[in-house]
Amino acid sequence: MWPADIEQKARAIIKDFTARGLKLATAESCTGGLIAGVLTEIAGSSSVVDRGFVTYSNDAKVQMLGVKLATLAAHGAVSRETAMEMALGAVSHSDSDFAVAVTGIAGPSGGSADKPVGLVHFAAAGRDGALVHREMRFGDIGRDAVRLAAVRTALGLVGEIAQAPAP
Question: For residue 55, what are the domain limits?
């Protein structure tokens, strides 16, 4: 169902988190639950995946994750600041040790000169205070391709945050 590299990354996360007794939450906008979907495709994922938040609207980001209205007003939904608040909110609104968040513009419309189609912001947070951000500009490569590229990047970020030393 998934490209081999994505499935391999998901399997590695499930194996690592299971061995370490860790839990994960996802907070997704432009990927619409694909990250949670690929993780839960793996047998044994129920011991790792705590929950997934699909927060496509700004209201959902505020209500479910605690993203501040002021952040959305100042920076927009597709921003470093929003992605970081999404990840922190997913950790604080779950029983997870780590969370990954994704917000972006998959296209084909919705882009602007400042925020073009293919722009995606990622953040991963740990209950231990770890927080990382990544901005990717995949370009106008098509909605499906942007979303798959976002899943790949998000899974890589989960591996990175889970291996990072606590601050």
Answer: 4-163
